[in-house]
Specification:
mainly alpha; 13 helices; globular
């Protein structure tokens, strides 16, 4: 893209800056539109599972409901509690929203279609996603209310607990692929399946790791059945209790941007990213653009997120902690040993 702007007569510095801004907008604007639409899809899935209609009034089939909700919160008054720390109170949703967008800089939508194809892309995503807890903790503390504060403590413990097991799960992925680059991780999934299946769709060796990663992703994004930070039965609305207007909307947008990020990571790390599901000569899989496969797989995982939310009851907090520390952590450690042993025995080095 830099070369294109240079061809228009710009010098290299201006062309590079313009190309970078254009690349950011090409990701951020469709992502914001996607967040609005998946909120609609989320509500429709819940409604269908509960035998209800869901949004169906604003626009055709209710498609404009999310935009109507966005306009409503934009026009509402922003109320800040008198005893709150106003600076941190307003900074918390901004951090949550900004951090949710930053991680998308290294997400490849297709071969070569990525804003920044850095060699440590997976480490970057892990580091950026870990910062999300700061927005929750800051909002809970700055609200000067006991319910948001309890929610903030829960969020900190919950995210730290599941990031430990996620770290070991990602170690298995990196050991197999031999790289932290997300494009390289996708390319390492080309046609393997121990001769049992032509597994472009998923890695048989890492499939148990995907199950744990998917469940941990639910905990990382505070989705049902792990939404203990927003448990209305004991915490009202959790860390969002004192928020209103656009400050509340930024939390909402950041949450769904994080959900989409986790869905895309499920696709990239375990299900072949933009690669077609199977390599079959009779079906012209490769005639379909890679970005279409990426979006379809990501949408499938989002549907699974919605499905779980509509059907699985909330865990108790002790069950949440026990699952993370006593089940996922030992299992992920065992699979690090298993995967590394298999790679050494077969001579597979990425």
């Amino acid at each position: 893209m830099t070369e294109f702007f240079q061809s228009l007569g710009m010098n290299y510095e201006w062309a590079w800056g313009t190309a970078t801004i254009a690349g950011i907008l090409l990701i951020a604007l469709p992502l914001m539109l996607s967040v609005a639409m998946i909120i609609y899809v989320d509500r429709k899935v819940w409604a269908a599972i509960n035998l209800r209609r869901g949004p169906n009034v604003v626009g055709p089939f209710g498609l404009l409901q999310s935009f109507a909700d966005g306009l409503k919160v934009f026009l509402q008054e922003t109320i800040i509690p008198s005893a709150a720390n106003k600076g941190i109170f307003l900074l918390a949703p901004i951090i949550t929203f900004t951090v949710a967008l930053l991680a998308w800089a290294v997400i490849p939508f297709d071969a070569g279609v990525v804003l920044s194809d850095i060699n440590v892309g997976l480490l970057y995503v892990l580091a950026i996603s870990s910062l999300g807890v700061y927005g929750v903790v800051m909002s809970g503390w700055a609200s000067n209310s006991k319910y948001p504060f309890f929610s903030a403590m829960r969020a900190a413990a919950q995210m730290i607990s599941y990031e430990v097991s996620i770290g070991f799960i990602l170690v298995c992925v990196v050991l197999y692929a031999g790289t932290f680059n997300l494009t390289g991780i996708v390319n390492a999934q080309l046609g393997h399946g121990f001769g049992i299946v032509n597994a472009y769709a998923f890695n048989l060796l890492l499939f148990p790791m995907w199950v744990m990663f998917f469940i941990s992703a639910l905990a990382e994004t505070q989705r049902v059945p792990f939404d203990l930070t927003e448990a209305e039965s004991e915490l009202v609305a959790g860390y969002q209790t004192e928020y209103s207007s656009m400050s509340f909307a930024l939390f909402w947008l950041g949450e769904y941007a994080n959900i989409l990020l986790m869905c895309s990571l499920n696709t990239l790390l375990f299900f072949g990213g933009w690669l077609p599901p199977l390599n079959i000569d009779l079906i012209p899989w490769f005639d379909i653009p890679g970005i279409v496969w990426f979006l379809l797989k990501t949408f499938f995982f989002f549907f699974m997120f919605s499905w779980v939310m509509a059907t699985v009851p909330r865990y108790r907090y002790d069950q949440l902690m026990r699952l993370g520390w006593k089940v996922f952590l030992p299992l992920s450690l065992f699979f690090v040993f298993l995967v590394s042993g298999w790679l050494m025995a077969t001579g597979h080095y990425g």
